[in-house]
Amino acid sequence: MLRVHVDEAASAELSVGLDEIVAEGARRMLATALEAEVDAYVSSFLEEVDEDGHRLVVRNGHAEPRSLVTGAGPLQVHAPRVDDRRVDEVSGERMRFRSSILPPWARKSPKVAEVLPLMYLHGMSSGDFAPALEEFFGSAAGLSASVITRLTTDWQRERDQFAHRSLKDVDYVYLWADGIHFRVRLEEARLCVLVIVGVRADGTKELVSISDGHRESTESWADVLRDLKRRGMRAPVLAVGDGALGFWGAISDVFPNTTHQRCWVHKMANVMNALPKSAQPAARAALAEVRDAEDRKHAEQALERFVKDYEAKWPKAVEKVTKDTAVLLAFFDFPAEHWIHLKTTNPIESTFATVRLRTKVTKGPGSRAAGLAMAYKLIESAQTRWRAVNAPHLVALVRAGVVFEKGVMAERSEEDENEVAA
After folding, report:
1. pLDDT tens, 17-36?
2. Which distant-in-sequence residues (6+ apart) come within 8 Å of 410 by Cβ?
3. Which of 3, 158, 224, 232: disulfide with 167, CB 3.0–4.6 Å?
């Protein structure tokens, strides 16, 4: 009996020791990966300096330790920090380094299914990151280069199945559309991924379509929209997108009754590009008054002030706004709770933000097909964290044709009530 107790105690002690070894190995691997990521980020901006010749992007010690829950148990992480003094030319805000390995809000390690697409789109080949992931997640994960290659093949098949699914039983009331560009490592041409995200009648957001457009042409977008219509998709009530897209000519042809809303982020960037830097902060604030006005009337008044202040000196900048007034203010005809969602293509932009940044300094995915599959998996993972739009119950009313005045539902007739109830 004593021998049994001794063996159990020894086994328990050995188990604890192995757990500690695994946790320590995972901690070191994570620390190494984070340090390498920061070194690569800082190195990519070595040539950017201020007026005194000081570098704008430098390392800045480490953040306070925090606990991260992983498959190897809880780990204490000391993430390296970056002092980035560059200023975004569009928003006027300071740039910030955001780790793709360990986001600032993360308290749990990401799933391998979410990590691989992001790393691949950042320009790493399977041979580059397979050994690192194998050591971090353990050999049982089977993350060899050949396994990852098979995964990418499976994901291409999943993307193809997604692209042929029936849309007869879903109803997308709002759509966001954008073209995302990636460099392709094995080809000279860049990959242009045409992405459409929709809001269903219950207020939830989901990926509608993702395809290789070759270029953001009207015909490429028309092919996408005609295919969606062929598979049963109803015309959306409102579509949001960048003004430069061939998307608008395409949707006018395929879904002529859909209302157009131009993305304010893209528009403000275009206006800022037509202004000297000295005039940009005040102009940006003036346009924000238009965008964030309490209703259409106040927005139009704010726009008049913008025109009055800037037209004499910078007529081209002003024209970029005035020629698109109707499609910039279209969102005011919808529920006020939805305005924040309808002003920009943020659901798409935010998902690909880190990829946009990193593909500027990396070679991109290995092929167009693999890049498209990886983009699909990235947004598929991201949509599990998307929240429904504010006041989701109002989306069905928008589909039913209910009128909203100053963002508030107008008085409805008995006939309207019956239509909504049906």
Report:
1. 555 666 666 677 777 778 88
2. 402, 403, 404
3. 232
